[in-house]
Amino acid sequence: MITGLFETHLKVADLERSMHFYGEVLDLELAHRDETRPIAFYWLGTRGDAMLGLWLEPPKRIQRQHFAFRSTVQDVLRAPAWLRERGLTPRNFLNDGTDDPMVFAWMPALALYFTDPDGHSLELIAMLEEQPRPELGVVSREKWESLS
């Protein structure tokens, strides 16, 4: 019955600012902007695969959320520099001041985080081909590679 996630929505305080962020900074393709109400939709990945909706709301009604963008291992590894080029601060899962992607060994997947203008936590994540090793928890990429 369920084969994936098609659409998710975020409440944003400034629709124009968020449209600039998701469209210009993150290079997402605008799918539709509804001029009759304050909302814009962006395609995630290939057109028709998944969508992100941005809904204008008063700042006091915005609750910070988290979601992850599917990516490739190569792109997650390139992401720290790519994000910094766009004026964004990449961070790892531990938020310890470093920006080297970390591995969630139970999946396993490589992940890196950053924040949008409203403080929503965004993640780039890529599944790894190795077998899951949940006993390792969350580890650095270097540790994962040394144990694989």
From TrEMBL:
Q: Which UniProt keywords apply?
A: Dioxygenase, Oxidoreductase
GO molecular function annotations of the record: dioxygenase activity
List each copy of the VOC domain by range.
4-127
Question: What protein name is recorded for this chain?
Answer: Glyoxalase/bleomycin resistance protein/dioxygenase
User: What is the scientific name of the source organism?
Assistant: Deinococcus proteolyticus (strain ATCC 35074 / DSM 20540 / JCM 6276 / NBRC 101906 / NCIMB 13154 / VKM Ac-1939 / CCM 2703 / MRP)
